[in-house]
Every structure is written in structure tokens, then in C-alpha cells.
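batch job 7 of whatever, protein = Amidase
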Amino acid sequence: MTDELCTRPATELADLVRRREVSARELLEAHLARIDRYDGEVNAIVTRDDDAARAAADEADARLARGEVVGPLHGVPVAHKDTHQTGGMRTTWGSPLHRDTVPARDELVVARLREAGAIRVGKTNVPEFAAGSHTFNTLFGATHNPYRHGLSAGGSSGGAAAALAAGFVPLAEGSDMGGSLRNPAAFCNVVGLRPTPGRVPSHPTAIGWSQLSVQGPMARTVSDVALGLSVLAGPDPRVPISLSDPGAGFAAPLPTDLTGLRIAWTPDLGGRVPVDPAITEVLTAQLQVFRDLGAVVEEDCPDLTGADEAFGTLRAWLFEASFGEAVRRSPELVKDTIKWNATVGASLTGADVGRAEVAHTALYERVVEFFTRHDVLLAPVTQVLPFSVEQEYPTSVAGTEFEDYLGWMRSCTLISATGCPALSVPGGFTPDGLPVGLQVIAAPRADRRVLEVGHAFEQATRFGERRPDLG
């Protein structure tokens, strides 16, 4: 029963707790026992406070016994990304500069999960300052892919994705600038949503107007991600880009029929990104699934001219603003890729940023027009398969050499620049058993649509039910 609880969806677990068929304490103990048994090999959860978690679970059970009204995640174990501040629990950002930092209070994404009744299990591993899409750092080492030890779990929400795949928690959260929710979800055969910027408000943040980095939910099923989004979404007056729509509607039942849906498919984002042929082969075979569900599928892609300039320039500008001081003060304690990106940002002129914003605006307008002709866009999440944990980042794919550490993530970074919501959903496996992710993209603010399409595909294929063998 213990392991069986650790593989069930968060939606089911929340219902079991509410009906008092399983106690919050029993649910927590099952997940803690699984972490104890397997995380030594995976290295997904890097900070824990079991006593505080047990106290919270006992209080959750007491509230139910008293007949109190409880939240939609009451008693459900969750884990928080180690770049998100947790009051009273160490938050390191994967950096030796913060090895002993204990924030005084929760940041908004953490607080909203707690207010919904979730039980905090611990913090998930990240690359240093969430930079890069492979999870390793000098404090805790590398997170291993549960599907194959020795391979990357992706990043920067790699600890979260690995924890979900391994059954350590049923629900987690992460962030995504250039693919940090989507890449690890694809590598670990789970679901990750990059919402429309402002859908999940981020607070505190130094640059509240930026739309490159977002926060969002991760889980093993699309319905669980929708439940997580229903809790995380909704306006906050302190966040200038926050959307006014309440989040509750995202938890409504999702359809399994796609009759009449207009789908565009691009295997390489209009010829802009090289992709491992093994990934393309797996995903191309899934197009018939969408046709069988009633959709019309054709190959097409929006004009992504300017996406590289917008993303690269604005990311570098943000890195200088966020990490430039640390790079100059303690360069020996900051990894080289962060130093490079901050240095590029420091060299930018106002004209450079202005041109990037002009390109960004034109890109947005073209993408909005594209989605008047198509309802969703399908594309690979990643350009590469999970690679060795010993490799900092892939330097080439399909015979194409990358210029920098961001090159292998362009299947996600180009989409980040559009402002569109994008869902990574399990898209199948290679013949030797490595997961492949399918990226479902829709018009800005159409977050519900990517969930609907992802759910219908998930229910038709059941790829997400293929769990790793942890031995």
C-alpha cells in the first residue's frame, strides 16, 4: 500500500485525504519512506525537515477531524524548487554563496501551495542559480534521471522532475526561463507547464516587469498540473504583469476529444533548430493519435524571426541585473556559464536592449496572428536525449555545433520569447527506453487549451504511466 500511494495522482490522493480514507500523516510517511529508500541514488531532494512535515500532516488530520473547510491540496505532499524561498527552511539557489541561507518567509508560489493545504516535504535540487538545463552544483552534486542512472534529469527544475518520476512527491513546482519546467519534464517522463507570463505571479522579484522567467506546476499527469495551476494562478497586486483571471477554473475536468481542433506540427521549429533524429521519429509517430482524436494536423510553424535576439539579449540583461554583482564580488564562487552570461549582459547598450524589445514585440504580433489559423502548435521539447551527468551541457546535435551553453535548449528558448503557454507532456520512448517529451503550445493566455490537448493525448497514449524501475 505504501508504494501504491506514491504512484497515484495528486487529484486522487487529495480526494482520499478529504474523505479520510487515508490520513495526511500516512500519506506523508509513505513518501518519506520512499525518499529514504531511493533518493540516495537519484539525489532529487536536497533539504528536508521531517519533523516539521509530520507536525503539519498531524495538524491537517486534526483540521479534518474538527470538520473544518480545507483547501484543494489538503494533506498532499509537495516539494519546492531550491531557488524558491521557503520560510524557516534552507534555500541555497544551488550556490555556495547561499549554503546556509534560511529565508524568514515563503515566497508567493510556496505560500499559495501551503495555503491550499499542501505539506512541505523539502527542497528539490537545481543547477547553480537555475542557470542551465542540467541539474548539478557544488553543494549537492548531480541529480540522476530515474529512468537511467548516470543520465541527466534535465533542469533547472531537474530535482522536481526526478522526484515526481521516482514517486517522492505527487506534485511539485518550478520555474522556466529557457525551458526549466519543460526540459526536465521531458527527460523524466512527467508533465511540466510553462504558463503565460503573469498567470502565476512571482513575488518577491527584483524585476517585476520581465516576462522571460515564469513559475509553474509539475506533476505526473496533466490533471494534476491543472490542479496545481488552479492553486498557483490568480492576481497579486504587487506583481505588475499578473493576470486578473482567478485560478480555480483550471481544475475543471479536461476533455478527451479533440474533434475539429486545428493543429500545426513542426519537427524543428521551421528549420531553426537541429533535433536528434531519434526524437523526431518518436514524435512524428504520435501525429496519428491526434488525427484519431478528431484533430486536423498539418505541418506549419510561426515566423520566429527575432526570437533568438529577444531571448538572448533580454536573458543576458537579466543575468547582469541579477548576478553581476556576485560575479564581480566573488567570481571564484560562481560557475563559468553564469559569469559569461552576466558579462554579455554588462556589455549591452541601451540600443541593444531597445532593438531586442522591438524584435520581441514584432514576434509576439506574428505569433498571435499564427494562432488565428491554428489552435495549437506541436513541437519537440528537447533537441537531445538525456545525456551523461558528467557532461555540463551538450555541445552538438545531429552534426550541428552549438556556440554556447544555451544552444541545445533553443527548442524551448525560442518559444519562451513568444509569451505563449507551453506544456511538456510524455510523448513516448526511444527503442532503448529513454523518455521523449512533446511540447504543446498555444496562443498567449490560452493556458487551458494546452492542458486540454495535453490531457487528451495523455489519456490516449498512457505514456506517463510507464514508471521507472528503481530496483
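notes: The radius of gyration is 21 Å.
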